[in-house]
Task: structure prediction
Amino acid sequence: MAKSKSGSIKNDPLFQQQPALTFDNLEPEEAIELTDAQKAAGFISRYLDHLKEGDLYHKKLEPYFKGSVKDWGWELRDFKRFYTKLVLSGKWTEEKYVTVLDTILGDNQMLGEVVLDARGKMYDQGRLAPDGKKAVPSRRRGRI
Result:
């Protein structure tokens, strides 16, 4: 054993026969607490995977980015910012955010607080389907 920078090797816990630190009794979530920025980045990764699964990327995201004056980085920052503001604060569920975001992208609308608020209200009223499509208004349901 080499001499440590902090002093004598005799001060080393292993040299003094002390047990090494163990983390066997901790759950992964307890061992590492993620920041809001890390949680938002994880959401973006899952969301892009969601779009690639159903080939929705070419149908929704690509036309949205081509029609936007912002570049990819700015748009993804907005996705993260609103995720942090709405989902991580506890106001919305992740399912609601994804449904509303899918609808906004599908309609090629600019992502902003006013649009998110309006679509969020539509979701709460049951006027948005979970697949991101607009549901039939309640007054027209059941009619032929």
Notes: The mean pLDDT is 75. The two ends are 85 Å apart (CA to CA). The first helix runs from residue 28 to 31.
